[in-house]
Amino acid sequence: MAKKGKRFQEISKLVDKENLYGADEALELVQKTAKAKFDESIELSIKLGVDPRHADQQVRGAVVLPNGTGKDKKVLVFAKGEKAKEAEAAGADFVGAEELVEKIQKENWFGFDVVVATPDMMGVVGRIGRVLGPKGLMPNPKSGTVTFEVKKAVDDIKAGKVEYRVDKAGIVHVSFGKASFGTEKLKENFDALMDAVIKAKPSAAKGKYLRSVVVSSTMGPGIKLNAQKLMD
C-alpha cells in the first residue's frame, strides 16, 4: 500500500476512525479536512445491503440538490426539430443528432458531463451505447435523461441534479457539494440525497439496507456516519 503524504496524515488525526458520527458533526468535520489549494468536492459513499446482480435489487435514480453541486455541468442533448430548439433555448451546451454520434465515434470526444435524449433519438444514441455506458453517460428514463421534456431536463441538471446508481460492489458514490458551501447548505444537499436513496430501497432487499455511510473531501480521509440513525 502506498504511503500517505504528510498533509493527509495530519488531517487524518482530526478523524476518530472508531467513531460513528452524526450527520451535522461529520459535515462540520469534513470541511476541516478539506485543506487542499482548491475548493474540494464533498463526496458521499454508501454501502448498501443489496445484490446488484439481481435486476430487482438495482438502486438508481436522480435528485435535484437544493444548493446545486458547485460545478457547472456541460449538457449534451440528442434531439431534432422543435425539441432541439427547446434544448438550445434552455441552455444546453451541445445539441444535435447523428453528427454528434459521429464526433464521439471518430474523435473520441467527451466534452460533456450529462447526456439527455428524446425517446425518438435513442436508436441513434444506441450506436454509441458501448462507449457511453461504461462512463455512466448513457441516457436512462429512470434518471429523467430520456424524455420529451427537454427544457425541464436541462433546467434540472443545470440547477444541480445528480444521478446515483449502485455499482457492482453494492456502493453508491455521489459528490454533493463543495467545501466552501458551509455546513447548512451541505446538510440540505446531504438530506435530499440520503432521502432519495433510502426511498429507492428495493422491496427485494433483505436485512440491513444502509451497511455503511461515509463522507469525505476530495483529498481527505473518510468519516463514518451512524447509518442506523439515518434510517430512523
Automatic annotation (TrEMBL):
<keyword id="KW-0810">Translation regulation</keyword>
<dbReference type="GO" id="GO:0003735">
    <property type="term" value="F:structural constituent of ribosome"/>
</dbReference>
<keyword id="KW-0687">Ribonucleoprotein</keyword>
<keyword id="KW-0678">Repressor</keyword>
<dbReference type="InterPro" id="IPR023673">
    <property type="entry name" value="Ribosomal_uL1_CS"/>
</dbReference>
<dbReference type="InterPro" id="IPR028364">
    <property type="entry name" value="Ribosomal_uL1/biogenesis"/>
</dbReference>
<dbReference type="GO" id="GO:0006412">
    <property type="term" value="P:translation"/>
</dbReference>
<dbReference type="GO" id="GO:0019843">
    <property type="term" value="F:rRNA binding"/>
</dbReference>
<comment type="function">
    <text>Protein L1 is also a translational repressor protein, it controls the translation of the L11 operon by binding to its mRNA.</text>
</comment>
<keyword id="KW-0689">Ribosomal protein</keyword>
<comment type="function">
    <text>Binds directly to 23S rRNA. The L1 stalk is quite mobile in the ribosome, and is involved in E site tRNA release.</text>
</comment>
<dbReference type="InterPro" id="IPR002143">
    <property type="entry name" value="Ribosomal_uL1"/>
</dbReference>
<protein>
    <recommendedName>
        <fullName>Large ribosomal subunit protein uL1</fullName>
    </recommendedName>
</protein>
<dbReference type="GO" id="GO:0015934">
    <property type="term" value="C:large ribosomal subunit"/>
</dbReference>
<dbReference type="GO" id="GO:0006417">
    <property type="term" value="P:regulation of translation"/>
</dbReference>
<keyword id="KW-0820">tRNA-binding</keyword>
<dbReference type="InterPro" id="IPR023674">
    <property type="entry name" value="Ribosomal_uL1-like"/>
</dbReference>
<dbReference type="GO" id="GO:0000049">
    <property type="term" value="F:tRNA binding"/>
</dbReference>
<dbReference type="InterPro" id="IPR005878">
    <property type="entry name" value="Ribosom_uL1_bac-type"/>
</dbReference>
<comment type="similarity">
    <text>Belongs to the universal ribosomal protein uL1 family.</text>
</comment>
<dbReference type="Pfam" id="PF00687">
    <property type="entry name" value="Ribosomal_L1"/>
</dbReference>
<comment type="subunit">
    <text>Part of the 50S ribosomal subunit.</text>
</comment>
<dbReference type="InterPro" id="IPR016095">
    <property type="entry name" value="Ribosomal_uL1_3-a/b-sand"/>
</dbReference>
<keyword id="KW-0694">RNA-binding</keyword>
<keyword id="KW-0699">rRNA-binding</keyword>
